[in-house]
Every structure is written in structure tokens, then in C-alpha cells.
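Project outcomes to date are best conveyed with an example. Our students and postdoctoral researchers have been running inverse folding experiments weekly, and each run begins with a structure described purely in C-alpha cells. The record below, which covers 307 residues, was selected by the lab manager from last quarter's runs and is presented without edits.
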């Protein structure tokens, strides 16, 4: 895309948590098949576990190889060094609450550091005293082909995070989402919102909506689905607001850049520091400092002070 901007992750965890929750509530059977081949979901289980307030992302009572178990899935956006231990702790609490064997899957949404590898292992005096195996899925290494079949169509919103994904694929993926049979308008709108939300982990949100809105029929359909899906409406409104904020930020950067170059053209390289300022108030304060700088050294010092 022309903008060349990197995707931002400033929307916080709430949007992504809600997106994954919607995906898990409606498409649990497909997710189980995808993440733990051979398993079959029986029912969703409450994610609240005893001994502490930590909540599991997804818990399902399931069958695997003909036996009952609890399928446990955790999604990670940021690396945590103790994640293997956490998977073990989750597993012990699952046993405490449900008296069933846990089958854990840790899913990394995007490349991050650090990433843990199974199993969790604790040793003492040369003995293995605690051991828990779990699976790790790195979505960017996963072939999207199985998800692009009718059997796993509900998982299409995960495709932008998979191997070989490109932002130009988003319109075609959106068409797949809205054409899934036996899905009502609310669910179509939710899935479209999940697609945009997860896609923004890899691509700029502005590019996603620009591509989706280029086709007039898709644009009209989005407007219709926004009326049915509060989640899609919120994601769309947040993207519009984000675009407005970015426009205001770029305008303030332009003003500050103009102040510097008009008085001190020798600082043409240093003004790149303005791109790292992420708030309008900070840019306005910096622009005033640069406009009032008594000499080039004062202006250079102000630019060096950018965090």
C-alpha cells in the first residue's frame, strides 16, 4: 500500500480479546479441529479457575482419541518468559476444578520475544519433579490453505496472521466471511470486525478499511452490517477516529518541521525525530519550543529530547 506505515497496536488488548472471544463462542468446533486435530468439542467451560483470579482464554470440554478432556487454548500477543510455567499452573487448576486431563495449546498471534517451547519442566537434585507437555502454534508459520476451505470458513479472520498473508487479500477474505452460509447478519458483522481487528496486528488499519471500502458493494454491505453488529460498529468507528487523530498528528508534525527548516535548514536530518512523537499535545509543545529556540543548538537539543 502507498502509506507504507507500520500497523499500530495502540488499541489495547480489549479489542483483540473481544475479537477472539467472538471467534471462540461461534466457531469452537472449527477452532478445536484447527488447533488440536482429532479433538471434538462437547461444551464450553467457564474460564475462571480456582486459586487466584487468572482467567483462561478458552476452555472446552472435549473428546480426544475417544476420551474426555479439557481443551485449553491461550493466545499471546506479547512474549512472556514464564509462559510455560503459566501453562502448567493453568493445567493444575483445570484438574482441580474439572477433574479432567488438560490438553493445552499456546497460540502466538505475531512474532514476539521471548517465545517459550514445551514442555514445562522443573527439576530438583537431578530429578524431574514437575512436567507438563503442551502444544505451541505460531500463526505466521501456519499454512492458511485448510482455513480457506468450507469446513473451516469461520476461521478466515485468522488468515491475515498466517503464512504469506498480504494486505491486498483482505477484500477477498471479507467476501468469504460475508458469504458463509447459514450465518445471520450479526454473526457476519462480528466476523468482519474480527477480520479487521486481527488484520490490524499485521497491517495498518487505515489500509484495511481503505481496501474494504473501495468496492462499492462491499462498502454498502459494511454499512448494513454495522447496523446489526455493535462490535463491527465499534471497530469501524475506532478506525475512523484513529485516522482523524493521525491526520492531526501529521499536521502538527508538518508545522513543527516547518519551524525548524525555515530557521535552521542544517537540521534537515534531525527533524526525523518528530516522527517518533505520538501525541498531539507533545507535538504542539515541541513546535512552540522549536519556534522560540534562540539558536541552532537550542533547536537541536529540543529535537534530541524527543523520546
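After processing, the design step wrote out the following sequence:
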Amino acid at each position: 500500500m502507498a502509506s507504507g506505515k507500520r500497523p499500530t497496536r495502540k488499541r489495547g488488548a480489549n479489542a483483540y480479546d473481544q475479537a477472539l472471544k467472538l471467534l471462540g463462542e461461534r466457531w469452537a468446533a472449527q477452532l478445536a479441529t484447527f488447533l488440536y486435530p482429532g479433538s471434538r468439542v462437547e461444551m464450553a467451560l467457564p474460564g475462571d479457575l480456582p486459586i487466584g483470579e487468572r482467567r483462561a482464554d478458552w476452555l472446552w470440554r472435549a473428546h480426544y482419541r475417544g476420551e474426555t478432556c479439557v481443551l485449553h487454548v491461550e493466545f499471546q500477543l506479547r512474549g512472556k518468559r514464564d509462559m510455560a510455567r503459566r501453562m502448567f499452573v493453568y493445567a493444575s487448576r483445570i484438574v482441580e476444578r474439572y477433574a479432567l486431563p488438560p490438553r493445552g495449546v499456546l497460540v502466538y498471534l505475531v512474532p514476539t520475544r521471548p517465545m517459550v517451547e514445551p514442555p514445562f519442566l522443573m527439576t530438583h537434585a537431578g530429578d524431574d519433579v514437575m512436567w507438563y507437555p503442551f502444544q505451541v502454534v505460531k500463526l505466521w508459520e501456519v499454512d492458511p490453505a485448510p482455513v480457506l476451505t468450507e469446513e473451516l470458513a469461520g476461521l478466515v479472520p485468522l488468515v491475515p496472521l498466517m503464512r504469506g498473508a498480504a494486505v491486498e487479500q483482505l477484500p477477498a477474505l471479507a467476501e468469504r466471511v460475508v458469504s458463509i452460509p447459514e450465518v445471520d447478519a450479526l454473526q457476519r458483522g462480528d466476523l468482519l470486525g474480527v477480520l479487521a481487528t486481527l488484520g490490524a496486528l499485521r497491517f495498518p488499519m487505515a489500509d484495511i478499511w481503505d481496501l474494504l471500502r473501495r468496492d462499492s458493494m462491499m462498502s454498502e454491505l459494511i454499512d448494513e452490517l454495522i447496523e446489526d453488529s455493535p462490535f463491527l460498529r465499534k471497530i469501524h468507528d475506532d478506525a475512523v477516529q484513529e485516522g482523524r487523530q493521525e491526520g492531526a498528528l501529521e499536521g502538527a508534525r508538518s508545522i513543527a518541521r516547518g519551524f525548524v527548516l525555515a530557521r535552521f535548514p542544517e537540521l534537515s536530518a534531525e527533524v526525523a525525530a518528530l516522527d517518533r512523537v505520538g501525541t498531539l499535545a507533545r507535538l504542539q509543545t515541541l513546535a512552540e519550543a522549536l519556534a522560540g529556540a534562540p539558536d541552532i543548538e537550542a533547536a537541536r537539543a529540543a529535537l534530541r529530547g524527543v523520546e
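Residues 1-6 have pLDDT under 50 and may be disordered. The beta strands are 39-44, 58-64, 67-76, 102-108, 120-124, 127-132, 135-138. The training component of this project remains on track.
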